[in-house]
User: What shape does this take?
Amino acid sequence: MTRPDLLVIIPAYNEEANVAGVIQGIQTYLPGAAVLVINDGSRDRTAQVASGAGAEVLTLPYNMGYGAALQTGYKYARENGYQILAQIDADGQHDPVYIPAMLNLIRRGDADIVIGSRFLVRSEYRAPFAKRMGMLLFGTIASWATGQRISDPTSGYQALNRRAFCYCAADVYPSDFADADVIIMLHRAGLRIREVAVKMYPSGNKQSRYLNMYSFLTPAYYIFKMSLAVFVCLLRERGGAEKVLD
Amino acid sequence: MTPRQQIFALIASIALLLFIVEMVRRRKLREEYSWLWIVVAAGIVVLSVWFDLLQWITFQIGAVVPVSTFFMFGIFFLIVVNVYFSIKVSTLTTQVKNLAQRLAILDHYVQEARRAAGDEPAGENRAVDAPPADGEGVEAHV
Assistant: This one.
């Protein structure tokens, strides 16, 4: 049996209500793709539901954070020889209908990382004020540092080629949230980033703090942390994407 | 420094020294962490006995009384130790994260292999199936 070359990863924390729908959506638009749910220490039946919906499930021994869960998926993909990886949130916020278009950009070799952005076209998506300000500020900084427009630096809806996810599987990846600092880091590592317009829905899991960093970070702390992360990122050496490839 | 201060500093530093050595002997403290404390305790012993040295340092750094030299170096040392431990904790955090990720991936392979062999594992016995509530069950394994 040959493994497919595409792996779709879904980091999930207490998403028993939504994860099956997301998996079914992926199976509709990408029949035959391997789907891996990274169950980040959920206390509900996320693992059983995901497994029942036909996904492979990796269960982390305790809750480790969104970034650490994603990275587990990158490591799994690296080990198992996958060439392309797509990542999508488990709460139903991302519509899987966009994945084929994102993957096409990767397959054509136009980009190493494709980010689904909710702000490239006008949409009814409205973030809370603090979040909007944070996105605007760090989107601007990321755009300046990378020399290209980055409209949605916090989007978790992405597709990566092997070069990109192998780089992220190394120790440089943050455990909490990938944000402008990670985009700048990836750009400086020599990876090509593209954004595509996607529509996002309100989260199906309103209580989830897992996917919404702004619910537990105060804006002041967030701005401080991100400014520091971006500053330190700019101090580091460029390059490095080649070093981590096997 | 009054003889009273001198005797107190001497007793305190010797007690610290003995305590550190005893902790290392009982393997409660690893050698690589103990050297720092031994150096500090030894330093206090030297400075409380050799008062001229303390006075000389006080003069060199522009302090007025030897006691403030003691305090300044004490606080400086505590800051350095805290930064050192922050670095250690960061390293440990990364290592624990990598271990947990490795565990999850290996556990998945084990389940896959067992399924392939027709040996369905009993769900409730799996190592990582049921995470404990925050902090709960952690001490039980120490």
The first helix of chain A runs from residue 19 to 29. Chain A has a mean pLDDT of 84.
